[in-house]
Amino acid sequence: MNPNALDRLITLFSKLPGIGKKSAGRIVYHILDSSPVLAAGLAKELQGLHQAIRRCSVCGGFTEADPCSVCSDPSRDHSIICVIECAQDMRIIEDAREFPGVYHVLGGLIAPLEGISPANLTIDKLIERLRDGTIKELILALNPTVEGDTTALYLQKTLKDFHVDISRLASGMPVGGNIEYIDKLTLSRSFRGRVKV
After folding, report:
1. pLDDT of residue 14
2. How does pLDDT run across 25-34, given as a tens digit for each residue?
3. Per-residue exposure over 30-65, b if at least 16 CB sit within 10 Å of its own CB, e if not
4. Which of 38, 119, 120, 163 could hold 34 in an S-S bridge, CB 3.0 to 4.6 Å?
């Protein structure tokens, strides 16, 4: 039996992270119960997403204009780089309004069992950014997981010859936690209580 349009859409939504079959069904039924304008707007935005959004050539975050609004902002402290796993972490940290510097998106974490090595990350690009000598501090805002700790340790060893302070977010973040799910207050305390590594 071939799935109908409703089943196909539920299957597509359920492939998104954090959305199971039930949540996908609720989303699809909500779209059906809403005005067709909502479905048309969603379809239009999704269709043009990859054309409208690109990676910032400086930090690796997602942006419509290159460089992104953070990298091109002269009021930001460009001597402090917050190193993050993915572009989504940048938005979460920005929402906390605690960090005055700029970012560097690694594009993942070192995970040998998943075949992700340092060569798969943007570590070489980070080294390039450090070469001009204007960076004073790197804040490693990586999830406190085995992969996050492995990546942080690798970065510490790789960057030890650069004259830059390296710190990690304080233990306000729970072990095994994920930046995506941390409240603003905890994130704020983590930035304030960061420690040198």
Report:
1. 95
2. 999 999 999 9
3. ebeeeeeeeeeeeeeeeeeeeeeeebbebbbbbbee
4. 38
Q: How far apart are CA 80 and CA 166, in angstroms?
A: 10
Residue with tokens 């302070």: 165
Closest by alpha carbon to 104, among 88, 81, 121, 128?
81
Tokens of 82: 């917050």
Task: Point out which residues pair with 167 in neighbouring strands.
Answer: 139, 196
pTM for this model (two decimals): 0.80
Angle at CA 37, nearest 5°, toward 32 and 40? 85
Q: What is the pLDDT of residue 171?
A: 59
Helices of type H across the chain = 5-13, 21-33, 36-52, 87-96, 123-131, 146-158, 184-192
How deeply is 12 buried, as exposed, middle or buried, from its count of CB atoms within 10 A (0-12, 13-18, 19+)? exposed
- For the chain, the first-to-last Cα distance in angstroms comes to 58
Phi, psi at 116, each rounded to 5°: -100, 110
d(CA 82, CA 70): 12
